[in-house]
Design goal:
By secondary structure, the protein is of the alpha+beta class. The chain has two domains: 3-133, Jelly Rolls (Sandwich); 139-187. The protein has nine helices and eight strands.
């Protein structure tokens, strides 16, 4: 049950078995039914999560009523609302399960307690870097075709888990543009 999260944590530093056990002891296993929000707009994000199974979408509702997808996460990804977690201000977005999912919750309080015990645990903070790297697809400096190609090459599992309208929003393009790109790449 803990193999994938141990493997993920080890990529942030070479932890001893005792250190890994200490980190694992801080985790809480949670099942999250499809449509359930892990983080709600207006609530402060105080935890980060490791996706053991399933998928999650982070989105905000614009003034126009349109849902703008900011991030998509699948298995073996770490997720949290970066801005809310760092500032401890209410979240402006929602992180919701796109399918029945399982996560390990790691509280910010437990994370800080581990750091107090040993500087070795400070490396676990790199989890946050990984969680926010997923937004590279939204930069407008690359073409829609390049965005889609990046997605195919780096996160192909997203194409299997999320509706095209959410993928298009995540890439910062319209569903119609995404359809044209997909057709062009197939032919």
């Amino acid at each position: 049950m803990y193999d994938s999260i141990k493997s993920s944590i080890q990529q942030f530093g070479n932890f001893t078995e005792a250190q890994l056990s200490e980190i694992i002891s801080c985790l809480k296993f949670i099942t999250v039914p499809k449509g359930t929000s892990l983080i709600k707009e207006g609530k402060v994000c105080r935890e980060f999560y490791f996706v053991q199974k399933g998928g999650f979408r982070q989105y905000e509702i614009l003034d126009t009523g349109i849902e703008a997808t900011m991030n998509l996460w699948t298995e073996r990804n770490w997720l949290f609302d970066y801005k809310s977690f760092i500032t401890q201000q209410p979240a402006l977005s929602i992180i919701q399960a796109a399918e029945d999912s399982e996560v390990f919750e790691f509280s910010g309080t437990d994370f800080h307690e581990l750091i107090k015990k040993s500087d070795a645990f400070f490396r676990v903070g790199r989890i946050m870097e990984q969680a926010i790297q997923n937004q590279e697809f939204q930069h407008n400096r690359i073409t829609p075709e390049e965005k889609y190609e990046l997605l195919i090459n780096n996160k192909p599992e997203i194409l299997q888990k999320f509706p095209l309208k959410h993928i298009a929003s995540y890439l910062g393009i319209t569903p119609e543009t995404l359809s044209r790109i997909r057709k062009k790449m197939i032919s």
